[in-house]
Structure formats: structure tokens, C-alpha cells
Amino acid sequence: MTPALMLFVALTPQSVAQSQSALTLDPRFKPMAEAIPRRFVVLTDGSWLTVGKNETRITRDQGKTWSEPRSMIADVGPGLPRGGLPLRTKNGVIVVVYGGESRFRWDEARGEAAEARMDVWAIRSLDEGKTWIDRQKIFEGHGGTMLSIIETRSGHVVVPIQPYLSNPGHWGTCVLVSADGGKSWQRSNLIDLGGMGHHDGGIEATLVELKDGRLWMLLRTSLNRLWEAYSSNKGLYWGAIRATEIEASSAPAHVVRLASGRLALVWNRILAEGEKSYPSRPPAYSVYPASWQREEISIAFSEDEGRSWSKPLAFARLRGGTLVYPQIIETDPGVLWIFANKLRVSVREADLVGR
After folding, report:
1. What are 135-164's pLDDT values in tens digits?
2. Helix, strand, coil shares of the chain as percentages rounded to 5?
3. Per the CB 3.0–4.6 Å rule, which of 50, 57, 240, 285 could disulfide with 230?
4. Nearest-CA neighbor of 242 among 256, 266, 258, 221?
């Protein structure tokens, strides 16, 4: 692949989300309205449905205007829907996986959480989000930050979660799998990279289905690179757990398959362009003093199922701020919407890698 040309242009102050920071953006990437949600499902009629705190909204003009909120369930008590990860299956079932009430307190003297609880719940709709059924707790404990949900070609719904682990305190990753559209769930084996600290371990996974049917997971770590794992049985067991060659700061990545067949990866590299050092965090975060570079975000493409990647393009930088927790959505073939906190941009795949 021919590396994309590195060019930057400053946006106007009105388009900068953080007033004291200067956002620079590659000119091929176009800013989008902040009202556009980063998580939604497309309904049969082409409208979008997004999930909030026990309510849904619908847009028929790609996020410019929204319907009045519609309540999901009338119950009270634990496990009320609250955003989370929505997915519409090939069979038309809308599945939402979300965290319950979060309680987390870190005891720095002990190197453990004094309190850690955020159960994981699921709910589903069979009628385009009009009514909701089968609300259930699918993980008990602290499920951590959940960023990725996919449906495999076989129809399995696969969601990585991030259980808190003790002695010493850190985080691991496992996967919840449903073979029946979110009606019932199974849990995979645990991926535990060790560590000690309230941000240590193998966490905040993203995953994609490969052409050979295996699932490929990329994990955020505090080891200055992404780690990977593979599953040959739709996410129920993970092996080949190892470091990749993808250098990364302590921040999550997002990988997706595009209509072209390429894989696209968005993430925070160890160093911002032109920098020779990176910010780190105190020992309470992790054993290793990892990079916390979050001012700049990059994209790369793979033609060979993740074995090699194009030269990373650092397409956005927010000096003095953070661009983190990225997500790619291909709204039409070759049209990519990229989200991060304080960032919503669109770009054409052909403008970056050719046809």
C-alpha cells in the first residue's frame, strides 16, 4: 500500500471542542456534527435507533434531528438499560449489552479495589425497538469498559468484557457469546496478562471476524503495544495470546472489516508525531510506566488479515487534550465515520489507500 501523505490543517475555533486546545486535522477528514451518536443500529426503513438511559430515540436524517425519547421498560430496580452496545442481527433482533450501576474505589495502599461492582446486562427487541424483552444479568461482578460487539457469519453475538481480578488488583478479559440472538449467553475462558494497578492488565478489547472464520481480538495493555488472541469456536475459547508488533499507548483501539475486504485500525500510538518522549502515569495505574499518549490518533489498513499494516497516518491531534476511545463506522461502502471523545469526522477510504 502507498502511505498516505501527511498533511495537517487547523480548524476554526468554533469547531474545536476544547477551547484551550488546538485541534489539527488531515484535510481529507471532514468534521461532523457533535449531535451524531457513535452507537446506533439501522432499522428496516433506514432510520437509526440509539439507546440512552432506559429510552430510545430515532433519526431519519442521519442524526440532524431526533424523535422524542421512547421509554424502554417501566420496571424499577437494578439493571435498567443505560446506553451500552447495541447491535441489530441479520435476523432483525436488536440486542443491547450494557453495564449496570458502577461502584469502584481503589485502595492505593493495598494495591486493590476496595469496591468493584458493575454487573453486565442484556436486553433485546423483536419489533424494531418498540418493545423490549429478556432483560437479564449476563455477568456478575465488575465487567469494566465494554467497547465492541459483533455478529459472526454464523449468527453468534460476541461481546468482550473486562472482569476485575484480585491479588493483586488488575483487569482481565473474557467474552460473552450468544447463539440465539441474545436470549441466552455463555462465557469464554479468561485472558489474564497479569499486572497490578487500577488500569493494568489486558483490557478494553476490540475484535473482528477473519476470512477463515476465526475471531481476532486486540487488547489494550500497559506494555506499549497491543496484544492479540484468537478464537476458532465463535469466541468461547481464546488462545495464541501474545504481543503484536503494533506499538500503542495505554488506550483502546478499534478494528473493523470494511466492505472492500480490508481491515481498518484506529488507535493511539506510543509517541505523537515529532515527539521524543511520552506522558506516563503513577504506579497505581500499572506496574510498567506505559505511554499515555492521547493527543494524537492514527489510522492504518491491512490487506492480509492483520499480518501487516500500511504506514500509520496520524490524522488528528488535539494539543493539551485527549482523543481516545475511537470507533469506526462504515455508513456506506468506502465511507468511514470515525469517532473519539471530542472528535467526529468522516473520510473516504479511497482517499487514503486508493481503490
Report:
1. 999 999 999 999 999 999 999 999 999 999
2. 0, 40, 55
3. 240
4. 221
**Domain ranges within the chain, ordered by starting residue:** 35-203+221-243, 248-355
> Taking CA 146 as the corner, what is the angle to CA 263 and CA 76, rounded to the nearest 5 degrees?
140
DSSP label of 179: S
For residue range 240-277, list pLDDT tens digits in order: 999 999 999 999 999 999 999 999 999 999 999 999 99
Give ∠ CA 235-326-40 in degrees, rounded to 5.
Answer: 75
Cα end-to-end distance, the chain, whole Å: 11
Cell numbers 471530542: residue: 342
Q: Give me the amino acid identity at 69.
A: P
Q: According to the 3-state scheme, what is the secondary structure of 61-104?
A: CCCCCCCCCEECCCCCCCCCCECCEEEECCCCCEEEEEECCCEE
Q: What is the C-alpha to C-alpha distance for residues 198 and 252, in angstroms, rounded to an integer?
A: 15
Closest CA to 300 of 314, 310, 290, 292: 310
Question: Do residues 270 and 250 lie in contact, with contact meaning Cβ atoms separated by under 8 Å?
Answer: no
Q: What is the pLDDT of residue 21?
A: 55
The CATH class, in words, for 35-203+221-243 is mainly beta
216-224 average pLDDT score: 97
Neighbours of 343 (CB within 10 A): 25
Q: What SS3 class is residue 161?
A: strand
